[in-house]
């Protein structure tokens, strides 16, 4: 178990700057998820902590100790990759033993056997121990990879998109398993992914990376309900938050391109922040509801049936809004419907900077 | 899954099989010829039309390994009685060549030359492949300043036919006393093979995912340990292929061996044809020498055939 802190980390590869002034703190025993697109700097962050890269600027602390000059072996972290972390020539058992047989650890053969057995039991791969790794399925391979990390009892688990190469069903199953595992072990996990569902469902905390900048860190709830800017708003949630240009006037939101007005709860309070400046209204699809007498009229452009719910794409003028409605809602394509939003849930962003007014003020 | 094949594909397949058989036949014909000649009695070696059916003999090998001078008359019955079994094989062939000038049969130069060939080829192969593997790993994994230029420079050493530098090399070798020494040839052959080995191994190294070593580094191994434990086993196929090529080059080299050596360190390639000149050429002896000379390469390639044939099955998780 360990506490990790990155202070003002910048990493350049030649002319390309992968990370810019990154500050990050991961508490002991926390499941921290770094969320970002390809090239956002997630993997670089992981490799810096693992000691496979050295930062151009800044410091890395593990349990309060600056590990800048330490090699990968000394940092005692475990790394699980999307692929290629198992040796094809070895059996599962040999792969699990490999990290324990390192000379710096000097572990008795008897204990190695015990630890491998324990890890295999935890991950339910006992029946695979004598198999060669190139004869495993994708899910089994990833379990073994995780096993290789568990046997070590490292200070931190670093995971680089370990579930991305798996098919959807398996991914979902392993997601739950991994989260349970982390809670049982009580260890510090840093998990890197581009999949917002993984981030939302597993993370105690999420850090959203964009283009080498850490945009926002917070609990999944904070990130979801109170995104710092439009980038974060778009990054999490499926479908993502609706972002509508407009302005506030007299306690009402006037959505310009669609020419409709809706009430805004925050504006009635003193001062009405954000009046008469260009804004972006952010509203989650599930906070939009259909009602016969609702203020805005729209046409149903598209219906996606997800079983428990339907995702509607509504057309108002030349703009579209997405709404998540209960599955029992019966609508036909091109049907006229009326909708409203939950005025409490609207998030205001400044139109020029994209930053949420709640965070700016 | 049963592949559905059109009649056109079947026909093409048959043509391919016939072509492969034909090519194999063309390649095997000289080897058959050498092997057959090596076991023929001398009088059948040069008949026209060629003799295909004959009783194999090992007298060519006896002549290959022994040294004798020609006598003018056939052996007397006493001499025949006194001779060992392998000498009688030669008498039985109706030949008069029996005794050396000193009155006894001596070991010929062939075993020594063969041994020299083995020493030089094996040592230079180990050196070239070993250094090549390390160099390729460095180029493949680390940022080397001027990498492209350096690699080109390494390759450029092969852009001249080696014989072009034979005379200067000979003079230099004479000056430093490397003439007619094993090390002289080993250094030469290693230098020739090194550029080839570096380039070939670089390709193989690039194929090995660096994640393997990184996983080992994070797991508590040093770069060296990771190299030997993880990279080297993965590179085995490449090393085997490179070693076969280097070995064949060193084993078959003729020109430098002819110029740089004459006795002590002479290898088999310049020795075998030198036997043609002494007396009437005995083609069976030449063939016997060539036949034995082919064996090491054949055995070496056979031992490594699995590595040579195995495709790159890199990656525990397939792309």
Textual characterization of the structure:
The complex is a heterodimer of chains A (361) and B (319). By secondary structure, chain A is α+β, with helices and mostly antiparallel strands. Chain A has two domains: 4-235, Rossmann fold (3-Layer(aba) Sandwich), CATH 3.40.50.300; 242-360, OB fold (Dihydrolipoamide Acetyltransferase, E2P). Chain A contains ten helices and 20 strands. Chain A has helices spanning 42-50, 72-75, 92-97, 109-123, 138-150, 168-185, 196-202, 220-225, 230-235, 357-360; strands at 4-13, 16-26, 31-36, 57-62, 65-66, 77-80, 156-160, 188-193, 205-210, 213-218, 242-249, 252-255, 260-263, 279-283, 288-290, 296-305, 309-316, 319-326, 336-341, 347-350. A six-stranded mixed sheet of chain A has the order 6-7-8-3-9-10, with helices on both faces. A five-stranded antiparallel sheet of chain A has the order 13-12-11-14-20. In chain A, strands 15-19-16-17-18 form a five-stranded antiparallel sheet, with no helix packed on it. Chain B is mostly helical. Chain B has three domains: 7-38; 59-107, no CATH class; 110-309, Orthogonal Bundle (MetI-like fold), CATH 1.10.3720. Chain B is 66% helix and 1% strand. Chain B is globular. The model of chain B is unreliable at 311-319 (pLDDT under 50). Chains A and B meet through α2, β6 and α5 of A and α9 and α10 of B. Chain A: Belongs to the ABC transporter superfamily. Chain A: It is a peripheral membrane protein. Chain A: Keywords: ATP-binding, Cell membrane, Membrane, Nucleotide-binding, Translocase, Transport. Chain A: GO terms for molecular function: ABC-type transporter activity; ATP binding; ATP hydrolysis activity.
